[in-house]
Amino acid sequence: MSPLTITSRDAATGPVLEITGDLDYATAPDLRTAVDGLTLDAGQLLLLDLAGLEFCDSSGITTLLAARNLATRHSAAIALAAVPANTARILRIVGLDRVFTVYPDAAAATGSTGPVDPAGSGPGSAGQGVSLSQRNGPPGSVAQGL
After folding, report:
1. Which residues contact 93 (CB under 8 A, 6 or more apart)?
2. Sheet containing 77-81: which strands, arranged edge to edge?
3. Residues in CB range of 146: below 8 A, 6 or more apart
4. Is the confidence at residue 105, as pLDDT, over 60?
5. HEC-encoded secondary structure of 41-99
6. Which of 54, 66, 139, 144 could form a disulfide with 131 if both were Cys (CB 3.0 to 4.6 A apart)?
């Protein structure tokens, strides 16, 4: 087990939370507290950088959805960056690949580089992320059901 570390920073697009370690039943409340403590303005992007995420269970997925709900309440957007393959697989299985915008890394999400499909099928539209599975429909198409 790796301890969870959450580092917060500001980017031109909005707050970025770098999440490292295990996001599970024991540590999910820490992320929820960090997200709840953020100040989000309408139009901003809340970016969850998962480059250092080693493990994510259902409690972690629930916390990602809670972060999405917070962003929605503030008329802000949310995106995930550098989603590890095992977590991307879980998101695809449960249909959340159509809810979260995903970037290959934090730089792409904050405008330093363009987005790339994490499945490797090529670049996405300039300035926008891509879903984890382009063949499953447009991003956000499941959002009303959550």
Report:
1. none
2. 5-11, 14-23, 45-56, 77-81, 101-103
3. 65, 99
4. yes
5. CCCCEEEEEEEEEEEECHHHHHHHHHHHHHHHHCCCEEEEECCCHHHHHHHHHCCHHHC
6. 139
Residues composing the chain: 146
Beta-strand pair 5-11/14-23: antiparallel
The residues near 51 (Cβ < 8 Å, ≥ 6 apart) are 18, 20, 81, 82, 105, 106
Amino acid, res. 52: G
- pLDDT tens digit string along 5-37? 999 999 999 999 999 999 999 999 999 999 999
Write out pLDDT tens, residues 67-95.
999 999 999 999 999 999 999 999 999 99
Write phi, then psi, for 136 (nearest 5 degrees).
-95, 10
Q: How many CA atoms lie within 13 A of 136 on its CB side?
A: 19
- State pTM to two decimals: 0.78
- Compute the chain's Rg from CA coordinates: 14
